[in-house]
Structures are given as structure tokens and as C-alpha cells.
Specification:
Strand content: 35-45%
Radius of gyration: 15 Å
Order of helices and strands: HHEEHEEEE
Number of strands: 6
Structural class: alpha+beta
Largest sheet: 6 strands, antiparallel
Number of helices: 3
Helix content: 10-25%
Shape: globular
Length: 134
């Protein structure tokens, strides 16, 4: 059976204990694309009552990781940056959509937008990937 972007994502998810434990769901898988979903738990907010930036980065990083691993080569992050634009709170459903912007050799650039369910943009993330030699 030939591998597909979805079968690669399914294989990654089976081994992804972090996503499983935090309830992060991954879908929207296509070449160079992935979507990740997370409902913020009360334990995921900081002392100001807003989403801890680490969880927002994690959600964006998950979408990025699944998007850059859709083509078959094992691909990892070599750099990433996030800009936090609006707060999110416990109970908010967040969606991170990753899109491949460029691939060149073993390198790639991906943009991820994290939104609340109301469509408001919470964070913007840019990741740079590197495919590993087989």
C-alpha cells in the first residue's frame, strides 16, 4: 500500500504522546498542510488568566510538524518564531492551520495561524524545517 500524507500523519500521531495526552487533534492533512485543534484547559493558563504562550507555541508547532512531514522524508524544525497577538482563555477552542510557503532542497518554510473559534487570530508562527537524510 502506498504511503499518503494522511497515512504518514496517522503513523506520527500513534507515537505522539504529547498530542494524545493534551487532547490535540490533527486533521486537514494534505501535502504541505495540516490543521491542529486544542481546547484550552484551566491548567493551560498563566497567572494573568490567559493562555500560556508555551501552549500556543506547542499547538502551532504541532500543525507545522504534521504539515512538513506529509511528503515522506523525516523532517524536523530547525527554527521557529511566534508572535502572540490576542489572548485566549480556558475553555477556548483553538485551531492552528499550517501552510507550506516554500521548499528548497532539504529546507522548508511554513506559516501557521492560530485562531479562536470566533475566527480571531491569536498567534502567527513561522517555522523553518529540515529534512533528514535517510
Amino acid at each position: 500500500m502506498a504511503e499518503t500524507p494522511q497515512s504518514r500523519a496517522d503513523a506520527m500521531y500513534r507515537e505522539d504522546r504529547t498530542c494524545q495526552e493534551l487532547g490535540i487533534r490533527v486533521d486537514g492533512i494534505a501535502e504541505g498542510r495540516a490543521t491542529a485543534h486544542l481546547r484550552l484547559a484551566p491548567t493551560m493558563v498563566n497567572g494573568h488568566g490567559t493562555a500560556h504562550g508555551g501552549y500556543l507555541f506547542l499547538l502551532a508547532d504541532v500543525a507545522f510538524a504534521y504539515a512538513c512531514n506529509t511528503r515522506g522524508a523525516t523532517t524536523v524544525a530547525q527554527a521557529a518564531q511566534v508572535s502572540f497577538l490576542r489572548p485566549a482563555a480556558a475553555g477556548d477552542e483553538l485551531v492552528a492551520e499550517a501552510v507550506e510557503r516554500s521548499r528548497f532542497g532539504a529546507n522548508g518554510i511554513y506559516d501557521v495561524t492560530v485562531r479562536r473559534a470566533d475566527g480571531k487570530v491569536i498567534a502567527e508562527f513561522r517555522g523553518q524545517s529540515r529534512s533528514l537524510p535517510k
